[in-house]
Amino acid sequence: MFRAGAAYTRPAFITRAGTRLPMTAEQHLSKDDIRTLPSYPGLAPTAVSVVANETEMEAAYHQLSVCRVLGFDTESRPTFHKGETSSGPHLVQLATATHAYLFPVERLADLTRLRMILESPAIRKVGFELGSDVQRLRAKLGIECAALVDIGRLFRQPGEHRTVGAVQAVARLFGQCFRKSKRQSTSNWASPVLSEAQCVYAGNDAYVALQVYHELERQGRV
Predict the structure, then answer these.
(1) pTM exceeds 0.85, yes or no
(2) Beta pairing class for 91-95 and 69-75
């Protein structure tokens, strides 16, 4: 991952055939080739906080409200049966350059501060495939998210309809594999207590979106 002040080298990867190829933001990589890349480090568990009460909400708001851009995502308890409707979102994630904050919306009595951040036109919220996140927040909590950037669309070339998600974006920009656990993605996000693995998974979904956006900014693409 690119760090400020470091000399930047365009990432490359070794294909299964043993060929070293330079990466570009436009180049689609196969799942097999992505798996051969070194792992994306992401946030450690100590850099992910679950906001559980009013005091922690105020502390999180103090950190988030001064940011120009935040990584953004939500999680909902999955549905497994035909016709079943999701009752999500159950978790909202916001990330700065160094920390991710998780908001279990059904366990917080007052969401005013979270609403202020999500509805603020002065704070850009960046993420991948945000359509369903925004719809669920509106339907469940009446929150009208503002200043959103759906990063996947920034990768599309004219006439291209292929969706670019976080795993593909990290591979193209950083030459690393953002490993996402299927077990965690389909876990119970409405649980009263989230496991450490759930917290790290959710926090990094928001964090990686911010890192990808910052790299696109560095390249002059946004």
Answers:
(1) yes
(2) antiparallel
